[in-house]
Design goal:
The chain is an alpha+beta fold and about 450 residues long. The chain folds into four domains: about 80 residues, no CATH class; about 80 residues, Elongation Factor Tu (Ef-tu), domain 3 (Beta Barrel), CATH 2.40.30; about 140 residues, Threonyl-tRNA Synthetase, Chain A, domain 2 (2-Layer Sandwich), CATH 3.30.980; about 100 residues, no CATH class. Helices cover about 45% and strands about 20% of the residues. The chain is built from 13 helices and 15 strands. Strand 14 and strand 15 form a beta hairpin. Helix 7 packs across helix 8, helix 10 crosses helix 11 and helix 11 packs across helix 13. The termini are far apart. The relative contact order is 0.07.
Length: about 450
């Protein structure tokens, strides 16, 4: 049927025929998910039979597990329970998603009186390294200062704000927050300002924070581009969030992303970094932007305004975006994917770090493996085998109360994968997360020793 439909539309939408292989995969996955969901729904309904299935519960089941209210109603009827589905159920789902989208946009609800205050000229669009600037104070409200122009980036678009200092004739004022209200950018100070309205001041932005946020923002676009290359053209950004510690991108994908595919995405992202692809930052009239780059520029939702800032990773990714960005992919330095998890049906969240945060993560992983190797008295590449041996001994002695003849760990099998793969393997064995591997190893060794000594007595 899909082939017939694509053939019928080929003169209008020729790309439909080009993606039939992906369509087949999606249908196969959806069929499997449907059958699985039906079975899961029956099990869930059986558990819920003792209580009322509320509208809140229906929303939760649909949003977190992809179980439609119609399927809940159908399966409940088979078990003799009537479930009422609101007529505006899907409107409620849309409202719920809109609220979540606003959270990712890091929208600020607080409003202050800015009547008569002119639009602030933003200086951060063209060069992320623009961290020193001059401006004039046009408004002061408590600890809030408005300048005629600023290079401080306000919290918006899923990216956190800059911090730094504003220096006037009477001293330096620490800037702890930045937000945008309408067309006005507001600087929030730690203390009451020392400068006055009309005074010329100088701004100094924290370079380390600015760099890390710019790396995470551009890396978001790079990871999205890499995922599109690896998984297919259906990949788009649904939303994203960038902090100093880490970032994540929510991708439109019909299935969970396997560890193998995640590794491919990470490798492709780092390949794009190595290519030092230019990142073009330019404002276009809306119509020109749409005609030049297509409607795919609206990833994560529509953007208001007559002019759009286009972030173009030449040949790989084009988006409308107002964040602080690097000038080429090489400035991201390195990208390390931490995990992927399904946040709702058809949306997979990929969490990652870039630049200094990626190197810190790498160093942390190396430290975990080194400490675990010391505890298990083996080389790093023998840790997975020793961890498996320790876990089996611990399970037998502590859980099943069967004492082993010896507590000596002897496994010497060498793991052939990367250090990240080693950590993943140990996490699977211990059923824990990387940051808890050392503590878990210590606990297993300690409990095993205590159990063995108590048996000897």
């Amino acid at each position: 049927m899909c082939v017939w439909h694509a053939d019928y539309l080929k003169n209008i939408f020729p790309e439909t025929s080009e993606h039939l292989a992906t369509v087949a995969k999606v249908l196969e996955v959806e069929k499997s998910k449907y059958e699985s969901t039906k079975q899961k729904t029956r099990q869930i309904i059986e558990k819920l039979m003792q209580s009322e299935i509320t509208n809140t519960k229906l929303l939760e089941l649909y949003d977190s597990q992809g179980i439609s209210p119609e399927l809940v109603r159908e399966e409940s009827a088979k078990l003799g329970k009537k479930v009422a589905v609101p007529e505006n159920f899907y409107a409620q789902v849309a409202e719920l998603h809109q609220h979540k989208e606003q959270e990712h946009q890091t929208h600020r609800e607080e409003k202050i009186d800015l009547e008569g205050v002119p639009e602030t000229k933003a200086l951060y669009y063209q060069d992320w390294k623009h961290i020193v600037f001059q401006g004039k104070v046009v408004k002061i409200i408590g600890k809030n200062i408005v300048l005629d122009q600023t290079a401080f980036y306000p919290t918006s678009g899923g990216q956190l704000h800059d911090i730094g200092v504003i220096e006037g004739m009477q001293g330096k004022d620490e800037v702890v927050d930045i937000f945008k209200q309408g067309s006005v950018i507001v600087h929030v100070l730690k203390e009451t300002p020392t400068c006055k309205v009309g005074e010329d001041v100088k701004g100094f932005i924290d370079f380390i924070r600015r760099k890390q946020l710019a790396q995470h923002h551009s890396a978001t676009h790079i990871v999205g581009a890499a995922a599109r290359i690896v998984l297919g053209e259906h990949i788009n950004q649904a939303s994203a969030k960038k902090t100093v510690e880490k970032a994540h991108i929510d991708l439109t994908h019909y299935d969970m992303i396997s560890e193998e595919k995640l590794k491919e995405i990470e490798d492709k992202a780092n390949w794009l970094i190595q290519q030092k692809v230019p990142i073009q930052l330019k404002f276009y009239p809306r119509t020109e932007a749409e005609q030049t780059f297509g409607m795919g520029i609206y990833q994560g939702g529509a953007v208001p305004g007559k002019e759009l800032r286009i972030v173009n990773i030449t040949g790989y990714d084009v988006q409308c975006c107002g964040g602080t960005h690097l000038l080429n992919t090489g400035d991201a330095e390195a990208i390390k994917i931490l995990k992927a998890n399904k946040v709702q049906d058809g949306i997979v969240r990929v969490t990652f770090v870039a630049g200094d945060a990626a190197r810190a993560q790498q160093k942390g992983e190396q430290n975990v493996l080194e400490e675990t190797a010391k505890l298990l008295q083996c080389r790093k590449n023998q840790v997975p085998a020793r961890a498996q041996e320790l876990f089996e001994l611990w399970k037998q002695a502590v859980k099943k109360k069967k004492q082993p003849t010896s507590l000596e760990l002897k496994a010497t099998e060498e793991f052939l994968g990367s250090e990240k793969d080693m950590l993943v393997k140990v996490c699977e064995i211990y059923k824990t997360t990387p940051e808890h591997i050392v503590k878990t190893t210590e606990r297993f060794l300690s409990e095993l020793k205590e159990t063995h000594e108590s048996e000897k007595k």
